[in-house]
Amino acid sequence: MRIVILGCGRVGAQLAKTLVAEGYQVAVIDKNSAAFASLGSDFPGDLVVGTGIDEDVLRRAGIEQAEAFVAVTNGDNTNVMAAQVAREIFGVPQAICRIYDPLREEIYRTLGLETICPTLWGVNRIQEILEQG
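The chain above was modelled as a monomer; its predicted structure follows.
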């Protein structure tokens, strides 16, 4: 299975390394080539420098063969737009985007995007801990 990851920060890099270790074919896109250093020099996946909403950049990352796309940049708008491009233009079956803003997350989830909101996850987890006493 080929997975394209947009964003090579802490989450993107850890996800890429984990997926490669599990046998997935992984391509990572980031607009800053220095971000790839966190993957290590022996990372076997594809590294693409560019903007994740650019169709040519996505093609270089192998989006046309991807079964999943994950957008984890630090920008909600970029993540949403890139996930929509992956799903609507390239027909990627699974497009997941991280959205920090809980209101946006709810809106885009209701529009059919697969979303993850660490803000809500954190609030819910803290609430669970507090309720456990």
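Residues 2-132 form a domain with the Rossmann fold fold (CATH 3.40.50.720).
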